Amino acid sequence: MGRYIVQRLLSSIPVIFLVTLISFSLMQLVPGDPAIMVAGLQATPDEVERVRVQLGLDQPFHMQLLHWYGNLLQGDLGTSFLLGRDVLEVTLERLPVSISIAVYALVMTLLVSIVAGIIAALRQNSWVDQLVMTIALIGVSLPNFWLGLMLIVLFSVHLGWLPTGGYVDFREDVWGWLQAATLPAVSLAMLQMGLLARITRSTMLEVLRQDYIRTARAKGLSESKVVGKHALKNVMIPVVTVIGIIFSLLLSGSVVIETIFSVPGIGSLLGSAILRRDYPVIQGGLLLVAAMLLLLNLVVDVLYAYFDPRVRYRNGK
Amino acid sequence: MSRKSLGGVALTLAGALLAVTALTAGEAKAAFECPVKGGDLVFGQEAKVNSLDMHSSSTISTRNIAMHVFESLMTRDEDNNPILELAESVETSDDGLTHTFKLRDGIKFHNGKTMTSKDVAASFDRYNKVGIERAILGNVASWEAPDASTFVVKMKASQPTFLEDLSSFSVPIVIVPEEVAQADFLKMEPVGTGPFQFVEFIADSHVKVKRFEDYKPNEAYEERTGFGGYKTACLDTVTFRIVTEPGARVAGLETGELDAVEDVPQSSVPRLQENEKIKIVPYENFWIHIATPNFEKAPTDNPLVRRAIATALDMDEIMEVATDGAYNTNFGFQQPNRKVYSDKGKEFFNLKDPEKAKELLKEAGYKGEELVLLTNKDYTTMYNAALVMAEQLKDIGMNVRLEVQDWPATIATRDKQKDAWNYHFTGWGTNSSLGYLAVFKFLAKPRPIYTTDLESTDEVFDKAYSDMLSLPSFEERAEAFARAQHRVMEHGISLPFGWLTKNQAVRANVHNFVPFRIPRMYNVWMDKES
What we know:
The complex is a heterodimer. Chain A is mostly helical. Chain A contains 12 helices and no strands. Chain A has helices at residues 2-29, 34-39, 45-55, 61-73, 87-122, 127-141, 144-158, 174-208, 211-218, 223-260, 266-275, 279-307. Chain A is globular and about 85 Å long. The two termini of chain B are 31 Å apart. In chain B, the strands form 5 sheets. In chain B, strands 2, 9, 10, 13, 14, 15, 16, 17, 18, 19 and 20 form an 11-stranded mixed beta sheet that branches. Chain B has a 5-stranded antiparallel beta sheet with strand order 1-5-6-8-7. In chain B, helix 7 (303-312) packs antiparallel against helix 9 (354-364), helix 8 (315-323) runs antiparallel to helix 10 (380-394) and helix 14 runs antiparallel to helix 15. Helices cover 28% and strands 23% of the residues of chain B. Chain B is α+β, with helices and mostly antiparallel strands. In chain B, a hairpin with a 5-residue loop joins strand 5 and strand 6. Chain B is globular, with a radius of gyration of 24 Å. Chains A and B meet through helix 2, helix 3, helix 5, helix 7 and helix 11 of A and helix 5 and helix 11 of B.
């Protein structure tokens, strides 16, 4: 297992290289001049040119790229054009914010959708099943920015239970964090809940038709033991498979949700960096997010071994 | 404002600076006193703040906060006239080559140090190195600090408009301590002389400032005026919270989490007006909606086609759709309350005459060439304006295509691909607000939007613009501005649609919040209960 993990980590390096190369190239292709964004629209051509030199944008593409990789090897992700701050510092400030909300949304997604999916499967074709699947369908269909605004209107404006936005660091005030993070997390989680509940339901239905479940029932085991001990672990295999994908979707969905709820996370940082052509932040932010997702996928793959004993990681296979 | 300082400003505007001019502050009268002191006002700000370095950031969001922390030698009053701020007086020599500023006494920086002319010189040094609008100092030969309270600026050539330029609030030359002025681009610490001092900046979340207890208000005035005057911090703290989503800003105001907000969507205004706990304070003429043509691509290379387009358009319809009704279609590139206001060129504006436009198109020999409207969705008002304009032009038989990109991309396309667009949609806010000297900057050399060929710029406009900057008296410059405006309309160098109203709003317990280009929190106080 240890060797497998090391091999996977090493194989991540070319992936990271490709991600950064593609993003660097794409940014150069997209129209928009960071020098004008920094100098301001009122700047004269001379002023814009001075800013361009100041930012190193007068260098040819390959030189900028080499310079960036050279700095990366020394752990330097550069300086933001617009914030004037170290990119690593800025992104590391924001990542915990986004991760904390994404984890909250993930936990919510797993708890709600697995329970709902299992109940729906066990009560197949009953009104309970219909209700769960209808709610799941609504969850899948609602755009999260609209849902976010509706949640603000209901829970903040009308009921006054939760704040309309902002963020409280969970290390400073857990209750404050919970209050501030709940609406963004629900907005993010609704879509994933719907998807995962449907996956869980269909997987559970398939598992319940397997011979070993029939055998367990024939042995006279209680329904709770059949479901809890024999079925659930098998249901978890496809669920674990999609956890990585769900988490990455939760993180990428945060661009919109962080804007609506005024959350200073990585999504909001990258969104504004793209709009203002702040290349170093885009590049550095994508690098860190890509690295984090690769790591997450590795964790998911390792979890397979726990849920499915047939999966063994030997010699990298 | 005192009479004497008003007179001084008038002198400045009148261009009497060729003679020895004294711009001196007046005597003190009963000054403003805070009826209530205390409280934390939370302001919902629409745009993110990239930096608080007022020398190196040109964004409005920076200015929103930094104008509470920093001050300059000169600034603008409520009617946009230049006034003194950290300077007590300024004298200009007969030949117009020397401006001598006397600094106000006992001004403290937020770090406790007393301001001297060395700090002013160091601030000018830094601005000249990294300041976004250092072109202001382009005609300055040198500056010096002969004694602690005197600062002298020597010009290369006489420039009657120099003090007006110096008072610009766009990217002002704010005065900071000498040691702070050593900072690199975008890295200056927010240490100024303003009524509020910096507490914390959590990027994309909020900026907090608190009352500066050693602040010395400008006693030449009785009240706040524009960015200057008698300023005092009634509030303990102000938190500028970044809330980019308009719906969330409105919700925050309704719940009381936010005490004041900027840019309330017009669609929310009727509902908020029914809420007795909220006051809507519209700021009219926030920016002028505009499309600028490209003279290097057919069919807008033809003046008659541009005239036909201007003749066809119904600006009321365009502005109504673009802004949901938060607009006016008063003509002019300056607000009617400005001394320089002129309606020259009005005969070419908002004509709503499609039949006449069709005749002009025929006369122009228009043969169905594609007309590309370059717009963006980052500013929905610009996108909506383009949509309506496209439909109105299709009605007169034009072949119109909308090119929608994001805002930075439209700027790059506009500047670098002259064959890709005919009209670029934008809005002039700061520049129109700064006054007549700034408003036509985008149409003038060295970077006129309408052409890249500096040999083929419009001579009539260029002459009027040059006169506007160089003629000695205000009256002459104002007349040159009127000529420039007329030419812009007559020749279709720019296509104004109308003025946007920016709705600001406060909770009912917030007092003396007067809408302005930048929200001002000095001289604003709060009752405890909303």
